[in-house]
């Protein structure tokens, strides 16, 4: 029976990540064809048949399939190869050098998410070698997908494939970014599996007023009307809502904390005691903000525009607001929550949307993750989580795929969220290997045992 050579895997997955980081796929403009062609060459050399698809000039996507015996529907390994701008002057090591220093691989994309792309690539290669060694095929096809444009909505990547090539990537389940993060609450270590994701409901506020000379103040000043509405919305705490994922997340933490802290977490489950319990929690402010975000729809004003001359009242003033929806909500139910905060003469119109999603905690894939983690990290508590941002899952779920964010990393003292889109992004070689080892077991269990 085939057994991976983990020393070889360490070398290969590290090399793949270094190579991917060295390909500058900053979006905009993207140039993800660089990564797509690199990945396709590796896959082709392994005896697979990758398909490279260009959604726009230079915007490359690659898909490859390791066929199983067809007894179960496919599992998709999904990732993106574009990265956000880096500001090289603020880095300890150049962001596109892929330098290995102090046991870490440094560079833009090291944790978002070229690390996971490298891991998924290695996993496909390992299961191909397993078949080549004479082991029975998996019960499910294993599909590898690396796409463009996720950092700007994914329309030229995952969205393009869903719209134009759905049969290449159609799967029952998918593994994605968004989970696997290790963190500490008190003395207990937790690791997340993302089972829910907030939706996108960005909107524009437009205030109207009479134009005129600014030397004579007016009560219908469009700028003032807009500013008052923005202040109300920006400071508002919209109604409390509890999803299955967040209930399970809070309950799991409460059950594994000292009694006083556990009780405070339990009181987060009731809207009437949420604020008092939140204030009493001995956790960092960042976690408190996150707990608010996963129990409420949110609206954050970010862009303002009004006027062109300092002594003229503009007739129109506008603001762009980043709205995020909990599972179970859509634009119209969100509008109902926002309407009490709109002022006279202010109109709201939605501009961008993406549906929220939530996957079951009782699925065979989640069960496989739980089972593997109970032995791979027995001292760590696996908890479901909700991502407050958006990933390419919003596109893939349109095909009926159940998406879970999971690529585990051990807690090594670094705050994962402080590295994403930030300077000095990096991942340890040990963590890169660890995630590959754990996911090999997850896929083996999920795709070999008839789950």
What does this 3D model show about the protein?
By secondary structure, the chain is an alpha+beta fold. It folds into 2 domains: 6-183 and 358-378 and 386-448, 3-Layer(aba) Sandwich (Aminopeptidase), CATH 3.40.630; 199-230 and 297-355, Alpha-Beta Plaits, CATH 3.30.70. 35% of the residues lie in helices and 24% in strands. It has a 6-stranded mixed beta sheet, with helices on both faces. Strand 1 (51-56) and strand 2 (59-66) form a beta hairpin. The radius of gyration is 24 Å and the shape is globular. The two termini are 21 Å apart.
Assign the CATH topology of the largest domain.
Aminopeptidase
Classify the secondary structure makeup into a structural class. Answer: alpha+beta
Strand tally: 19
User: In the residues, how many domains can be counted?
Assistant: 2
Largest sheet: 6 strands, mixed
Distance N to C terminus: 21 Å
Helix percentage range: 25-40%
| Beta-strand share of residues | 15-25%
Spatial strand sequence of the major β-sheet: 1-2-6-3-7-18
Low-confidence stretches: none
Level-1 CATH class name of the largest domain: Alpha Beta
Mean pLDDT: 97
Count of DSSP helices? 15
Overall form: globular
What would you give as the CATH superfamily of the largest domain?
Zn peptidases
For the CA atoms, what is the radius of gyration? 24 Å
At CATH level 2, the architecture of the largest domain is: 3-Layer(aba) Sandwich
Outline the fold blueprint:
Elements lengths: L5 H17 L10 H13 L5 E6 L2 E8 L8 E6 L19 E2 L2 E3 L7 H19 L9 E6 L10 H7 L1 H4 L3 E4 L5 E4 L2 E10 L1 E10 L3 E2 L8 H14 L8 H12 L3 H8 L7 H7 L4 H9 L4 E9 L5 E2 L2 E10 L5 H8 L7 E9 L2 E2 L5 H13 L4 E7 L5 H4 L5 E4 L10 H4 L6 E3 H20 L3
Parallel strand pairs: 3-6, 3-7, 7-18, 9-17
Antiparallel strand pairs: 1-2, 2-6, 4-5, 5-19, 8-9, 9-16, 10-14, 10-15, 11-13, 12-14
Helix pairs in contact: 1-3, 1-15, 3-15, 7-8, 12-15
């Amino acid at each position: 029976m085939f057994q991976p050579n983990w020393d070889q895997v360490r070398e290969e997955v590290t090399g793949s990540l270094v190579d991917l980081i060295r390909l500058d796929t900053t979006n905009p403009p993207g140039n993800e064809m660089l990564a797509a062609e690199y990945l396709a060459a590796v896959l082709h050399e392994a005896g697979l048949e990758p398909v490279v698809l260009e959604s726009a000039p230079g915007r490359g996507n690659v898909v490859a399939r390791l066929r199983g015996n067809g007894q179960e529907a496919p599992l998709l390994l999904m990732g993106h190869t574009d990265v956000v701008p880096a500001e090289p002057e603020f880095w300890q090591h150049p962001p596109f050098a892929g330098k290995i220093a102090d046991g870490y691989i440094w560079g833009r994309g090291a944790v978002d998410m070229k690390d996971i792309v490298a891991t998924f690539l290695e996993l496909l290669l390992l299961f191909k070698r397993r078949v080549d060694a004479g082991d029975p095929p998996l019960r499910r096809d294993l599909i590898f997908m690396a796409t463009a444009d996720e950092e700007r909505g994914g329309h030229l990547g995952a969205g393009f494939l869903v719209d134009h090539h759905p049969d290449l990537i159609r799967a029952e389940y998918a593994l994605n970014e968004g989970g696997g993060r290790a963190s500490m609450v008190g003395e207990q270590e937790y690791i997340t599996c993302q089972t829910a994701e907030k939706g996108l409901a960005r909107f524009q506020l437009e205030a109207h007023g009479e134009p005129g000379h600014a030397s004579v103040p007016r009560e219908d000043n469009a700028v003032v009307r807009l500013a008052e509405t923005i202040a109300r919305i920006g400071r508002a705490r919209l109604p409390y809502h509890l999803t299955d994922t967040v209930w399970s997340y809070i309950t799991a933490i409460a059950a594994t904390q000292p009694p006083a802290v556990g009780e405070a977490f339990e009181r987060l489950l009731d809207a009437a005691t949420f604020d008092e319990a939140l204030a009493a929690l001995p956790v960092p402010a960042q976690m408190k903000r996150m707990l608010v975000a996963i129990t409420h729809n949110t609206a954050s004003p970010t862009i303002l525009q009004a006027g062109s001359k300092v002594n003229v009242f503009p007739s129109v003033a506008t603001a762009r607001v980043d709205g995020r929806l909990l599972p179970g909500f859509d634009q119209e139910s969100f509008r109902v929550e926002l309407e009490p905060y709109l002022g006279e003469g202010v109109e709201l119109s939605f501009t961008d949307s993406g549906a929220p999603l939530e996957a079951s905690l009782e699925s065979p894939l989640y069960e496989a993750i739980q089972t593997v983690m109970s032995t791979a990290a027995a001292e760590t508590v696996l908890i479901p989580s909700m991502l407050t941002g958006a990933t390419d899952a919003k596109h893939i779920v349109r095909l009926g795929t159940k998406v879970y964010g999971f690529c585990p990393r051990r807690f090594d003292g670094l705050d994962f969220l402080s590295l994403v889109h930030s300077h000095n992004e990096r991942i340890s070689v040990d963590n890169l290997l660890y995630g590959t080892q754990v996911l090999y077991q997850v896929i083996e269990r999920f795709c070999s045992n008839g789950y």
